[in-house]
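Both lines are given unchanged directly below:

***
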Amino acid sequence: MTFRTWKQHIQSGVACGCLALAFVGCNDSQPPAEDVQVAALDSAQFWSNHIVVDPTDPARYVDRAAWHLRHGRVTEGLLDLNLALKADSTHAPAWSAKADALYLTQAFEPCIEHLDACLETAPDHIPCLLRRAEMHIHLRQYPEAFERLNTVLRNAPLNHEAYWMKGMIYRDQGNAENARSSFQTAIEVNPNFFDGYIALGLAYAADMDTLALGFFETAKELRPQSVEARYNLAYCLQEHKPTNRRFLNRARKEYREILQIDPSNAASAFNQGYIFLEYLQSYDSAAHHFSKAIDALPYYHQAFFNRGLAYESLGEAEQAELDYREALRFKPDYTAAAFALERVLNR
């Protein structure tokens, strides 16, 4: 569960996939025993046999549902969860898992119904309490969310997610001090809690406090391939002291590394262009990076506008005019682009 990040120009996603390669040798050697075991665990036959051992055990259907869901087979996963609840309608993990599966499909009302059913059956079931609190937060039902989270903490005083969610509520209510305190508690009880460091970084960055940098750095250490951690670190460096060349160089380095991880990340290309345009007055470099942003996101109207500013600064009025027109084509009410176009036409 993640609540999304701070002051981005656009939202950019990261797609991760796996590629399995099978190598066939010249002999008839058998695969290692551990590979055979892994393959067996990933087979429909294995999970069918798992259930046959005791078809009345709901946990076995939940296990097979989890296997289906790990492979993106939501429909099959939901069928198994229904079988689990048919075997035992009071089995809280099945209610919780089904609510999560419905959440993945964005079936939010049925998700809430299943969470409520879970909590009727098992009022202290922590996964259901946490997910129900999250739904309350999405609906801005903060007193109800606090009640669920307090129940979690009475039963599990070291539950880091509960503290983190409390921090999110305080943040949404404008109580920055309590938000930071809750996020701090979350990472104290779980020093490997990535989302806690991101949340603390964002909380301090909102006040332009350089403590944010350390939290983003820790998040990056926990997940070196995380675009979220690197982007927030870079943006904080960029915005905190735009006159500090060392900070700007560090920001550019992070943006470059993001683009190595995710070459289609248009925001990172855009922000490099913005640094060159606004802070370094290196207009050729600015135009280059805005072009990269446009390649990644062809309707990126801000990139067209800012590239137009770079070209205008280089004295290339015709090219600037084209970019301002493109920005207005994608966003007809873009006032800054309209004024800029009028300016170059009246020269």
About this structure: The chain has 19 helices and no strands. The radius of gyration is 26 Å. The longest helix spans residues 245-261.
